[in-house]
Specification:
By secondary structure, this protein is α+β, with helices and mostly antiparallel strands. It folds into three domains: 2-98, no CATH class; 100-160, no CATH class; 167-241, no CATH class. It contains three helices and 14 strands. It has helices spanning 23-30, 87-97, 133-157, and strands at residues 2-8, 15-20, 34-40, 43-48, 58-62, 65-68, 71-77, 80-82, 105-107, 114-116, 189-196, 201-212, 217-220, 230-236.
Length: 248
């Protein structure tokens, strides 16, 4: 029995193939023992379980994991592999499996070192360019949280009460679903978001954002141009407690 799958070789775009639904055929394509990774209720990625150990070339990143060697994107029906038929999931998956920009060598605008990858928005530390993952994690994210806390401090200084009456603000946060409760306008929040644009996509990503009640739109702090942002959860950012003043 044959099935229709997508096969992606390192450095190449995915291509549809009709292959025998047999273990020997799958092993021949990936070049060894197979391992499966579930990426949806009806989609799996089939790869070489020893791809990294065997020194196979880098292919792509899936669900945050680096994959080495040729992979197969197949459907699932019961306990068997089947035709890939979920076009909606493929629309989000394929850009992650293949993007020529990922293999382009770039220079981080913050540390000046070369890196390969999609790159990250360096705001608020730079207005243009891209930064590497290390700078994004160690410098950009803390800077964005600092900006968000500064805005909340300014709101409190102007007399705006950001907490329910009679409640003491603590570092504990409470998460809300948008269908249950919406935030005030222009308050920087943390949300679990899914969105897609020409150059960047998010799938259940944790991002800083705000809400505009006039348009009903969510606005990503670091990516204000991204539209149709879907939020599954949101919360207010905890405020850093005031430090005690040192004795003179």
């Amino acid at each position: 029995m044959n099935i229709t799958v997508f096969v992606k070789e390192p450095g190449k775009a995915p291509e549809a193939r009709r292959i025998p639904n047999e273990l020997a055929s799958l092993q021949e394509i990936v070049g060894g023992w197979i391992e499966t990774m579930t990426v949806g209720s009806d989609i799996v990625v089939i790869c070489n379980e020893e791809g990294r150990l065997l020194g196979l070339p880098y292919n792509c990143k899936i669900c945050g994991l680096d994959i080495f060697g040729t992979i197969i994107l197949a459907g699932v029906k019961g306990e068997n592999f089947a035709d890939v038929y979920s076009k909606e999931r493929l629309r989000y998956l394929l850009p992650h499996l293949w993007n020529p920009d990922y293999f382009e060598t770039k220079t981080c605008v913050l540390c000046g070192k070369a890196f390969n990858g999609f790159g990250n928005n360096p705001w608020p530390l730079a207005e243009s360019g891209e930064c590497c993952d290390k700078c994004n994690l160690e410098r950009v994210v803390p800077a964005r949280i600092e900006v968000a806390n500064g805005r909340q401090a300014a709101q409190r200084a102007e007399g705006e009460d950001l907490t329910p009456a009679g409640e003491k603000r603590t570092a504990t946060v409470e998460w809300y679903r948008p269908e249950e409760k919406l935030p005030k306008d222009d308050i920087v929040l943390l949300g679990v978001v899914t969105a897609e644009s020409k150059n960047v996509s998010f799938v259940d990503a944790m991002e800083l954002l705000s809400y505009d009640s006039d348009s009903g739109n969510w606005i990503l702090e670091g990516y204000p141009a991204v539209r149709d942002v879907k939020v599954s959860w949101w919360c207010e950012l905890p405020v850093v407690p005031d430090l005690p003043e040192e004795d003179a």
